[in-house]
Amino acid sequence: MSTPDRPTLHPATVPALLGFLILGFVLGYGLGPWGVIGVLLLGVLGAVVAAQRPDLREPVLAAGLGLLLGFGGVMILAALYYVAG
Question: How far apart are CA 74 and CA 68, in angstroms?
Answer without folding.
Answer: 10
